[in-house]
Design brief:
The chain is an all-alpha fold and about 190 residues long. About 70% of the residues lie in helices and about 0% in strands. The chain is built from nine helices and no strands. The chain is globular, with a radius of gyration of 16 Å.
Length: about 190
């Protein structure tokens, strides 16, 4: 997945959806990223085990998103929405929106050893810490975003989650929602 191009596209989608009609501070954006991570934790708590959908089914949903919007929305809401995989995808989408907003070029600064633990709770705590570093504006923000995305992708892979497909599905679903997803304030 080409993250720099995706970051630009996601940010433009967010602008088109009205999320940037008013000023959004970096703190707001970082908290929104963290909120998606905590929603992933909440989904994990509810699922008790991670429900990974097969690649073929995810591809079928992507096809439906272009051919039959009503059926796509129904299937997405019933089988994907608010799942652990969906919330991980949301976390990456928020990270990429932040990168697009800041006009960052996402690349790693040197070698990187993946930090993801096979224990979901430890992995989520580590991701929370990584996202928290975005508050420190002097730090290498683009590098940390890229590292965090790689850690999320690795965690998804460890649990047979097709993260890129979930990102595509969530982006398709978000395009079916109203402005500011029902006029949310923030």
């Amino acid at each position: 997945m080409e993250y720099n191009e995706l970051a630009k596209a996601i940010h433009q989608d967010q602008i088109n959806a009205g999320w940037y009609d008013n000023y959004r501070s970096d703190n707001t954006l970082v908290l929104l990223i963290k909120s998606e991570l905590f929603e992933a934790f909440e989904a994990y708590r509810k699922e008790s085990k991670i429900k990974a959908l097969g690649e073929k089914y995810l591809e079928l949903l992507l096809y439906m998103s272009q051919e039959d919007e009503a059926l796509f929305i129904e299937r997405f809401k019933n089988n994907v929405k608010d799942s652990f995989a969906d919330e991980l995808a949301d976390t990456v989408i928020r990270l990429l929106d932040f990168a697009g907003y800041k006009k960052l070029t996402l690349e790693l600064d040197g070698e990187y050893e993946i930090q993801t633990s096979s224990d979901i709770l430890s992995a989520l705590v580590n991701l929370d810490f990584s996202i928290g570093t975005l508050y420190f504006r002097d730090y290498k923000v683009a590098d940390f975003i890229m590292r965090t995305i790689l850690d999320i992708r690795t965690m998804a892979d460890m649990h047979s989650i097709y993260l890129e497909k979930h990102i595509q599905l969530k982006l398709a679903y978000n395009k079916t929602r109203g402005k500011r997803h029902g006029n949310k304030a923030v």
